[in-house]
Amino acid sequence: MKTILVDAWNTFVTEKGMDLDLKELLDSYPNPKIILTNANKQECITYGIINMPYQVFSLEHNPNKTDKAYYHKMLSHFNLKPTEVVYFEHNSEALNSATSVGIKTFPYNKDESLDGLRIFLKNNLD
Question: Is residue 50 a contact partner of residue 12, using CB atoms and an 8 Å limit?
Fold first, then answer.
């Protein structure tokens, strides 16, 4: 079963708090979920990336998600292979880095409907 990697800031969490519609969509899948962020502990508090319903992973800007080393370290930490995860993210540089290590990605825009993400997940989760 593939793990769903979820971008934290400006995707799952915004100035308004947790995106409950997105959470509902994610909760409809039995797959494990991991929230990915660059934030350090203080930034997690500042941006509300605390008390999340899923595990949160951060390397605290060392490196950032725009560096493919972030994804190598994350995969190693969870003992996952690139083919065992899918990832959605709003930042194109982070998407490019994840894609470069073989992770299947989806460019997420929180201002659009969840339909595109729903289709991506349906087509890419085993």
Answer: no
Which tokens hold the place of 75?
A: 């995969």
Beta strands in the chain (DSSP E): 3-7, 13-14, 17-18, 33-37, 55-58, 85-89, 104-107
CB distance 90 to 109 below 8 Å: yes
pTM attached to this predicted model: 0.97
- pLDDT tens-place string over residues 14-56: 999 999 999 999 999 999 999 999 999 999 999 999 999 999 9
Please check whether residue 6 is in contact with residue 110, taking contact to mean a CB–CB distance below 8 angstroms. no
* Distances 92 to 16, 108, 117, 120 between C-alpha atoms, Å: 23, 9, 16, 17
Q: Is the four-CA dihedral 62, 15, 99, 51 of positive or negative sign?
A: positive
Tokens coding 53: 């319903």
